[in-house]
Amino acid sequence: MVKRKKKHHTLVVAGSISFSIIFLFVALIYVWLNLGKYSVYYAQHLPHRIGTNPVLVAVFNNYDSLYIPKFNFDTNSAPFGQYEIFYHMSTLHGRWISVSDRENKELEYTLGNGQDSMYSLDVLKPKQGKPDTYNFLGNGILSSVIYYDSPNSKGRIEHSDKEDIEDSDKILSTMYGNIVSHRQVPKINLQWLYNLLNERKFN
Predict the structure, then answer these.
(1) Which tens digits make up the pLDDT trace of 174-186?
(2) CA quadruple 109, 114, 119, 120: dihedral positive or negative?
(3) Are 58 and 175 in contact, with CB atoms under 8 Å apart?
(4) Which of 14, 43, 160, 190 has the most CB atoms around its CB within 10 Å?
């Protein structure tokens, strides 16, 4: 009789532990999915230092989880005004976003991981006197710009100024403005957790 009670107690404890582990696992998956899917909303409401760009980081790191209006799964792209925005993911090259003009099909901009920076925004047809590349730190701060005097030149790196920031903001708005304007609001708001995980990075 005593052995039966011990066995029953052991089974109850084992069942409780197993249930707790499964519940914790499911909860962690939900939290991970929630923070990715609603990352733009959370980034917009994250207290941050002037100059940092939480939305840039949220979009680039989570665009495979975000709602993208009129997204075409066959081409991994979505239209936005005169442009077609492509969202790439590759085990070899990582992730990057590219923008093409819908009329002439020519590539205009690409945003990917840079060699000397966390994010690198390349302008394929820069205007006279404008940078060819904008380099951003991991918190979205525009740290430097690069000018190429000729196609084969090494490139001239300069510190960014106010005009560079304004120009890069316009290009980034073209890249993901449609995502931001249609960002979804979480039913279960985990803003406190998002802030806890990210506010140090952006302050």
Answers:
(1) 999 999 999 999 9
(2) negative
(3) no
(4) 43
